[in-house]
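Before relying on records like the one below, remember that each one covers exactly one chain. Contacts with other chains, cofactors or solvent are not represented anywhere in the record.
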Amino acid sequence: MRLTILGGGGFRVPLVYGALLGDHAEGRVYHVTLYDEDPARLAAMTRVLADLAAAAGVSDAPAVTAARDLDEALRGADFVFSAIRVGGLEGRAADERVALAEGVLGQETVGAGGVAYGLRTVPVAREIARRVARTAPGAWVINFTNPAGLVTEAMAEELGDRVIGICDSPVGLGRRIARLLGARPEEAWIDYVGLNHLGWVRGLRIGGRDELPRLLADTEALESFEEGRLFGAEWLRSLGAIPNEYLHYYYFNRDTVRAYQEAGQTRGAFLRDQQRGFYAEAGRAGLPAGAALAAWDRTRAEREATYMAENREAAGAGERDESDLESGGYEKVALALMRAIARDERATLILNVRNGSTLSVLDAGAVIEVPCLVDANGAHPMGVEQLPLHAVGLVTAVKAVERAVLAAAASGSRADAVKAFALHPLVDSVTVARRLLDGYTAAHPGLAYLR
């Protein structure tokens, strides 16, 4: 099979390639095409992948080629992995800065920052979807571009069910809970439902028995893992569920905004500076074999250790435990998804797909994040219990925001864009929404289409 990675110079590409190196089954990926508009990042990442293949000692490692033309990159692809970042990390840093200046959250996918990122990204994602439909109509698109649910819904306008969104947050959460309960994660059924970065684990079945109540009753166990420390045992018992870590931005919004405002540097600015150093080092002429991979490993370790540092500070949760530093495994989800489709090997995965009739509070085209059965015909959402009222409120409000972003990106209407900001639960004023849009259009040339 041939895999094309859009955003092929991106920092997390080695995770995907590393997973491919460990796949020796028949029908595996034998060729990877990297597409990126930044030639320096593309060259550096090609070096890292070469070091990875050499270190693995795999004689039949997937061949890697770089492409600067999108149609060339797409032609002949069986799968397209989309992981683009419109505006780069400089854009993310600006998203955070503009929002915090107005006293609201500017996180990459949540709140004002997520709306701004969506307004920049949706037009580009729609164009990519059109190009895939024209150039590689038989390809399956696996989307990891954030905001993942919103972008997947935008691409589905052209690609239908042949685009599937993935995220590693539910995977990591389910794995941590299963291990606490003494189960192998692959043997547990995770009752998870919501939108991307807005979901809840409501049950975890092992051998047909729901073991989540046992965990919720054990304060020591609850506060021994990342989400337990972030939210606190009392709040988790009140919910009767374990929220995705991103719900900390909603449940403890004031605390988090204050921590972000008091931090010396925003997350986006930290990653921007960190990755500038990595790409400069990995792209340096005369670099010895293995040095680019070593630089990537060091950078990734620091990145993981500092993840959601402001939220942990706001919650008094302390440093991340070693068990929390393990990757959520989106590369493993992507590989399992490709295997299931290409080889008709049935798998159950938590994915971002069109709702159909799964959640009655949303229409059929709304992209949701739920367990899916995957086979050669794609991903099929499985039946779940309906959402409790507190979750209905958040899910429907945020879906309304996503729809306003989609409308603004299609119409170029400033009024639609203001509506997207103003409707978000974490933006508390239409006046603030207007100022946010003014700030973002001044910061981002890519938003010049809004009028």
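DSSP finds 20 helices and 13 strands in the chain.
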